[in-house]
Amino acid sequence: MAASSLYFWPGSTSLAFSALLVGLSSLPGVFSDLPVHCLRHQLVGDWDFFLGPASSERSSCGHQSPDVPESQPAVFLAEVSQQRKVQLQAPSRARSGADDQGSWTMIYDEAFEVNVDSLSFLAFSRFDLVHNGTVTTNVSQCGETQLGWYRNVDRDQWGCFYARKSAPIQEHESTASFSQSPVSRSASYDEPLVEEYHQLFAASLNLLQDMWTAKSYERLVNRTLRDINKMAGILRPFSAAEHGKSDLIAASSRPVARSPSFLQQKSTEARSTASFRGASSSLPSAWDWRNVSGISYLDKVMDQAGCGSCYVVATTHMLSARHRIKQQDPSFDGFSINFPLHCSEYNQGCDGGYAFLASRWAQDVGLVPKHCSTYSPVVPSCQLACDVTALEKRWRADNHHYVGGHYGGATEEKMLQELVDRGPLVVSFEPKHEFMYYDGGIYSTVPNQRREWEQVDHAVLLVGFGQQHGKKYWLLQNSWGEDWGEQGFFRMVRGSDESGIESIVVGADVVEVRQALSPSRRGSGIEPIFELECELKTLLAAQAEDSASVLRSVAQMVEEIQQSSCPPSPWATSRMNRSRPSTQPKTWVALRISWPPQPQLALPPAAGGKLVVTGCQNPTVGNIVRGEYAAFSDNHGRTVYRRSEQVNNLDVLIYFWDDRDGPSFCGWWFGPKVGGDQVWAYNSERAMVPPTSQWK
């Protein structure tokens, strides 16, 4: 769609246009990644780290793929193999009894990474969700962590850990919900906005400034303001600037020494880099990785569609570009975005995440070519379309880092140097409402925008820099399609931290993995998808009709789980009827348990055959009495029939489907009601899909 053709003489802005600019209501973005908010001064201090046994196999440590905020694993280790004391100092020094040269960094306000004693630790800060009727409050417990991950520097020993501050728990700061207060909404908050509205708004933006041009985009027509805000990025209750201000205010109210705030760090580092300016003067006056001696090292601009995947799109494009640069091979097709998007436990898939964590996961787990898992935002699937063991080459990320050494440590000079020397970088910024209308030029924020716009965060790829008419700019690749901006790219004012563009900057390299890929989840290879992590898999010898045998076996299984040394997992699975007789369908049982096992966990008794999977005796779907079952389609396109029963306050859900490649299957799940269906579907050998919203 062409730019708006409405023009006005300078100085003739009407009150109507002013009202349009200040009358825009805010839109809630998608939920922030994790409902936790911790400041650096709250994490600085002495910590106790509790480590589970190390293994040559990497574990998910009970987290789902992708991670789900409401389903965090219990902070529990069946065995604590060692305990370490670690001191975190501002802004980035970590010390232990044996290592005083360690490092650490916050990951926004949600997590930290600590590197000390030749080990690397990653964990989210702990949070509690308190439900009171229809209102849910999140309480951040910044002196404790969720169950997290650790590995050694050689990446051949992996384990789970948790940590808590050494001071008594009552001295820790617990921070109740940091969500922004509700703001007033205009009458048009959820009303579709017609094309004329967008044209009028674009024209007013062009009238207010002359550094960049705005236009009305067809993708915005008939969208509500709520929709547009969601399109802009991931909801962050606190902006990078507010993060720093909060730390500054909190620190000033305490007599003890605290870490400098985010804003203090920026000004301090700007002064400390004066000596660096001489070296940076040798840098070119402009740079563009789209055209280095006539060669482009970038992926094509893509459209992330309705998925909050900007962080992993930018990260994967950064890694792909750096690999092409290092190998001097611009023809390399690139790495898969879909693989880390839907398979990583460190981020929340289409609900958002961070480039730093996406880079860390690519370093811990690995990278696969684009053709192995093509981008699929509509139907999430952690499934590979290629045999990774047959790939001639395998890769992983390496040296993932924040520019400047830690979160908040970036400066313009450091960004310029790494961008030219090593390749594109991932940057995050806080787009305002008018950014959605950007068409070309050097973007800077239009003042006097309404406060109602919800703060969001958007990640893009930094690919170059330059100067036009005396104005310095960054050159960036967006992920909103080629019809947006300057063929999918945009320029932004450089050197003033416009919209926070110079605050959160991530880089990483790519190395080739030469070891043979092992299916056992070794650190040198790709984790096999669908294999449940360190879970007890007891083969039940019972027949589907023999509920008493089923219950005896399940009880035995729970007892063995209680005695096992596996990292905690909320799921225990077992398979029945291994012989697969032609007249008998195979049945899987998935038992939802709490960890650690609670004494009040009640197993349903074998009462009158209540657990008999009625209707499954005949392996033909046509023989199902459809009146007893609700039919629906799962995310594999199969027709599935379900009915439910209750036994001793336990929900029993019975499923039946045709697996296409053999006899029909019966599946049944039972456990304490937890507010929603949690169902695993299985094929003949291993889990196919995790709990999914389609199974309702």
Describe what you observe in this structure.
This protein is of the alpha+beta class. Among the domains are: 137 residues, Cathepsin C, exclusion domain (Lipocalin), CATH 2.40.128; 143 residues, no CATH class. It contains twelve helices and 28 strands. Strands 11, 12, 13, 14, 15, 16, 17, 18, 19 and 20 form a ten-stranded mixed beta sheet that branches. Helix 8 packs across helix 10. The longest helix has 18 residues. It is globular. 44% of the residues are buried. The N terminus and C terminus are likely disordered. Belongs to the peptidase C1 family. Keywords: Chloride, Disulfide bond, Signal, Zymogen. One of its GO terms (molecular function) is dipeptidyl-peptidase activity. Tetramer of heterotrimers consisting of exclusion domain, heavy- and light chains. Pfam families: CathepsinC_exc, Peptidase_C1.
From the spread of the alpha carbons, the general shape counts as globular
* Fraction in helix: 10-25%
Strand content: 25-35%
Radius of gyration: 27 Å
Largest sheet descriptor: 10 strands, mixed
Structural class: alpha+beta
What is the averaged pLDDT score? 69
H/I helix tally = 12
Low-pLDDT runs = 1-32, 175-184, 239-280, 515-629, 645-696
Distance between the termini: 41 Å
The counted number of beta strands is: 28
Provide keyphrases for this structure:
26% strand; eight-stranded antiparallel β-barrel; disordered N terminus; Pept_cys_AS; 28 strands; ten-stranded mixed β-sheet; Lipocalin; signal; disordered C terminus; alpha+beta; CathepsinC_exc_dom_sf; 696 residues
